[in-house]
Amino acid sequence: MRENGRIVFDKPVSQPIIMKRALKIIAAVTAVALLAVSCGVVSFTGRKQMLLFSDSEIMALSDESYAEFTKTATVSADVASTRELKEVGNKMVSALESYLKANGQSSVLSGLKWEFMLVNSAEVNAFCMPSGKIVFYEGILKYADKPDYIAVVMGHEMAHAIARHGNERMSQQSVMNLLGSAASEVIGNKKGAVAQNLFNIGFGIGSQAGVLLPYSRKHEYEADKIGMYIMDIAGYDVNAAPAFWKKMTDGKTSSQSDFLSTHPSDAKRIAALEEAIRTKPELK
């Protein structure tokens, strides 16, 4: 029962019942771990990932979101920049499609409908919907001021789509929500530090340092790597990738804050990209 907003326990719950409920959560986490290594494999990197949603579900949601975005976004009147953006994008898509077809991986592009849009905004930003709709803001062209640099951003955003990062993030969040509901049952039926520690491990340290946050950075590093591969396939200078991120870091302004908050361009990231270039396989 509750008194003044606090949970008051009428009687203690037996330890066996508590442990049984805790074990259910552990079993659920184990099941999640098994799913994570069996549901999908990222093209180019071979990383195993958990994908709980179908491509059709993701594409439908993506298209709805994109339609809502286009209702309020103002299309750029800069004809030359729009043309250059689309030329780079189409060149990269064509090269990627040819490469995947030649290597028997055409299914990687299943459901993707590539489109390229330049938005009239000074904001330094770019993003890609899971369905392949790529949006650049005019502000980012201050830094992506030549085809190779445009290809860096384009490849990175394309990589998020072909690696199914949107699906993976949704899958992770769904599992965390499910486990959160299960854990609340234990918390609601047991007093003391043991229950609180269980919650902290699962959703403090676990969800922040071990489950969700690293995936975000992992996705960024993976998108860097795959994007660089796509650049290479399309004939762009892969060394432009670390150069672009260094340029972004050196010229950091308040208008970049949103983009850099989701695309951190620190020394470790740049070093990882340089190492990926150094060890890059021949892509044919």
Would you give an account of this structure?
- The protein has a domain at 76-166 and 216-278.
- Helices cover 61% and strands 7% of the residues.
- The chain has 10 helices and 7 strands.
- The radius of gyration is 22 Å and the shape is globular.
- The model is unreliable at 5-13, 190-215 and 255-260 (pLDDT under 50).
- It has 284 residues and is mainly alpha-helical.
- Strands 5-7-6 form a 3-stranded mixed sheet, with helices on one face. The protein has a two-stranded antiparallel ribbon with strand order 1-2.
Range of helix content? 55-70%
Major sheet description: 3 strands, mixed
Our estimate of the beta-strand percent is: 5-15%
Mean pLDDT: 78
Low-confidence stretches: 5-13, 190-215, 255-260
Strand order, sheet with most strands: 5-7-6
Q: What is the 3D form?
A: globular
- Counting helices, strands and paired strands, the structural category is mainly alpha
How far apart, in Å, are the first and last alpha carbons?
66 Å
Instruction: Count up the helices.
Output: 10
Radius of gyration: 22 Å
- Give the total of beta strands: 7
Question: What's the SSE pattern?
Answer: EEHEEHHEEEHHHHHHH
List keywords for this structure.
single chain, 284 residues, mainly alpha, 3-stranded mixed β-sheet
